[in-house]
Specification:
Structural class of chain B: alpha/beta
Oligomer: heterodimer
Number of strands of chain A: 11
Radius of gyration of chain A: 17 Å
Largest interface: A-B, 36 and 35 residues
Number of helices of chain B: 10
Helix content of chain A: 25-40%
Strand content of chain A: 25-35%
Shape of chain A: elongated
Bound molecules: S-adenosylmethionine
Strand order of the largest sheet of chain A: 1-2-3-5-6
Amino acid sequence: MSRKNRRNRKKMDPRATWPRPVSPEERARILRFLEERFGFPPEIFEPYEFLATAKNYWLFVRTPHLENLSKLKIQTAGLLFLRKVGDYLKPTTAALQRFGRYATRNLVELDRLTLDRLRLEKKIPLKLEIEPGYVILTCEGQIWGCALYLPEKLISYLP
Amino acid sequence: MAETFELADRYFERYQEIIPDYEKFLTSLAEPLPLYFRLNTLKIRDPEPVLRGLHRQGFEVEPVEAIPWFFRVEPREASLGNTEEYYLGLIYPMTLSSSLPVYALEPHPGELILDLCAAPGSKTTQIAQLTEDQAVLVANDRRLDRITALVANLRRLGVACAVTTVYRGEQFPLEVSFDKVLVDAPCSGEGRYRKGYEGELLYQKEGRTNLSGIQKGLLVRAYDLLKPGGVLVYSTCTLNPEENEAVVDYLLRKRQAELLDWEAPLPSHPGLTEWQGRPFHPDLRKARRFYSHEIGAVGFFVAKLRRTA
Ligand SMILES: C[S@@+](CC[C@H](N)C(=O)[O-])C[C@H]1O[C@@H](n2cnc3c(N)ncnc32)[C@H](O)[C@@H]1O
């Protein structure tokens, strides 16, 4: 394997085994977070299962084939959805881009100039009337992804 | 340049009898291929904002009548990869005919589907989109670097119904059987060739790999991975009968597979039942050939089969 490939492998989720499906309690906790923070109706995740690895939750289509599929050696399963950061859950930009249109809370609309500046500087001073925590960035009607609001500043998690 | 032109003309001469309107085909090779993208309906259903955005960046965009959610773009030499719409996962640039194998596959929610040669994922993501992210997809490719690109595309488009694997297709484990398998095989890519713009005329290259042999191995393994009654789609973007009809003919002789008719949304021609004096199974006429000058996109071959035993 070339050097480059080895690096790529590292960047991907380096799992020898399949992630485990989460317990009903863990699922309830995830759904509660998504609903409380962003107003995501839990029903939209009904067709999906959450799979857990050490630091992440993945969203994967709910299927009776899961056990059967676990015979395969996989690179990834589903969409990387949430990261566990300390006691917090941080949604991925991919998750928010896909499901953000169902959110009703903690969406932060930026004008083009501010968005560009945030992408460039990664952190900008900004005062918002919201609880500190993760937010969904939007601009000109499109959903861009995840940022963190702390009192009077906004930190970008856009790739 | 004139030299390569002659080279191409001489190269395709061997297909003079099978390519309809051969002169027009040759003329078409002098033009760059049209550019298309698919709208990612997992994220957006109204094309208007995307069309407006692309227009602002200097693109002209027209919907394609024949195939839902596909759009044709000018200038065709430009790249869509740097646009905001691409970054946000709203579009997936792919040639129009690349959608055909998925139409033959007819994926449904709940089905377990293997995409054996999947990277970089234009068809995997199209299957996800057509099934509203509710089929169960295994997207495999033997090359890890290409799987990385596939994973990036799945993430960019927001697909949650796929797992990715890196097996040599010929050795994909038999423990799991599938409702449907797509083999979008590595091929010589003749259907993509445009003089001086794109593609290489691989088949004449010295020391070329035995593509036909690889394709046969992949197709047989794909068949063995099907549940009884399961559906298999074999596709390439080449005109070469050795990589198309001959490969399917090989499967028909080795396994109990039957060719199926399918409704193609673009103009097509029946598969060949004979090439250079060698007969193929008569059902090969049910396979479809798509020629680039007739469809305004990469030339394709698509065969739909069923496992009968
Ligand atoms: C025509 S491309 C696939 C394009 C893809 N289906 C899409 O629509 O984006 C063929 C792919 O087959 C892969 N490949 C080549 N040999 C293979 C093998 N033996 N097993 C599995 N994949 C293979 C190549 O790495 C390449 O990505």
